[in-house]
Amino acid sequence: MPCRASSAQHLPGNSMAIVFDPNPYLAVRQAFDAPWPGRRGPRIDLRCGELAATIYPEDGCRITSLTAYGFELLRQWNPNRRAFQYGCFPIVPWVGRMRAGMLRFAGKDY
User: Fold this and answer.
1) Which of 13, 24, 34, 55 is 20 to 30 A removed from 67 (C-alpha atoms)?
2) Residue 49 pLDDT > 90
3) What molecular functions are annotated in GO for this chain (predicted)?
4) Is the pTM of this model over 0.70?
């Protein structure tokens, strides 16, 4: 199997090396396997009857908990989990990154 060249960079104030690989599959794999410190920023709890959701807007609007009738439906974070191995990211009605956890719609910030 041929070897691939990659480059590593260290971000200021960060001891982790970021490795860039030109192979898209490996790039996705590296992002999936990236260490993650867990939830970031303030939390928003939504509840309606027997349904509840917990969302962290500053963590990519990640839904970290979704319960229905007392049953947790999402994989929970623990220190052994990687960046994309817990919770889920909603993509409706928007797709992509939400700058500073804010959604601007019809002239209002949410």
Assistant:
1) 34
2) yes
3) carbohydrate binding; catalytic activity
4) no
Q: Check whether 14 has a pLDDT greater than 60.
A: no
Per-residue tokens: 26: 């490996």
H helix intervals, 1-110: 24-32
Residues contacting residue 78 through CB under 8 Å, at least 6 positions apart = 86
Q: The tokens 């939830």 sit on which residue?
A: 39
Long-range CB contacts (within 8 A, 24+) of 64-71: 64/39
Q: Phi/psi zone of residue 58: left (φ > 0), alpha (ψ -120 to 50 degrees), beta?
A: alpha
Strands 108-109 and 104-105: antiparallel
Q: Which two structure tokens, joined as six digits, stand for 13?
A: 């104030």
